[in-house]
């Protein structure tokens, strides 16, 4: 889910200038870039913070100026809530806006007639501020679609043709903020990144989407470990119930224990009776717990009972694996063994049975 949310919109590899905010196309050898092994395609892009207005509502947004290859690279068609993915309609530039951003502006995508439109205010570059001067370039842009990637993109982003963004931002015809690269094999993107970095030198910074969203990916990787640690603590707390059950059983069966001893039963036999009783109690919990847990996961997979908040119908993702079931079985069985063995041993020693 994390890769789907953060890796589709963010290109596998991004090239930026390490010294300035923008750079010019003639600083990059696109022929060499295109022929690099593993590079599938590239997109020239501009990025800038702008102000967007719709009727009487205003919002800040990140304006992404891209060419048509970006729509394929980002799998835009799979992330549309309303409308359709396009940068031009009837040869006129149009935009795709984040779903939450359009909601914030009070707009919508009319399907039957017309187009929703927003006013974009792009800051003029190298302008001295003075009374009476307008510090913005403005343009009314029709909106043809709402995109749903992740919370950040949905709330802050708008995609338009790169020619329109250059006009709004006052960029030169060949000026760029970044170059987005798509790769043929995502598993080799770090090796491709290293190759490109060597080609471009220190004047440019080359990053993978993992590095760009490093905190998110590190968090998602450690989340599994955190959940397992929490589960272990829950299992430890639950094991006290098992200890209490065995203690109460021992108290109730004291007279029966003396009868067994008088019939010739030794301490090891009595130990095994209570020890196996503890394992049976735990086994019942493990079996019913796994059935219930996998049953809930199966219902979520089939019917999508739980939806993520502010996700426009996205359900909580579930993935069933045998490995997880075996891990839970091992952890609970180990704790059950310890919670049965040591308490029974101590009870029998205290009562001079073993």
TrEMBL record:
Domain ABC3 transporter permease C-terminal: 228-351
Location within or outside the cell: Cell membrane
Keyword Transmembrane included in the entry's annotation: yes
GO cellular component annotations of the record: plasma membrane protein complex
GO biological process, one term: lipoprotein localization to outer membrane
Annotated membrane topology: Multi-pass membrane protein
Membrane-spanning ranges: 225-252, 273-305, 325-344
Origin: domain of life: Bacteria
Family of the protein in this entry: Belongs to the ABC-4 integral membrane protein family. LolC/E subfamily.
Protein name: ABC transporter permease
Organism: Taishania pollutisoli
Lineage: Bacteria, Pseudomonadati, Bacteroidota, Flavobacteriia, Flavobacteriales
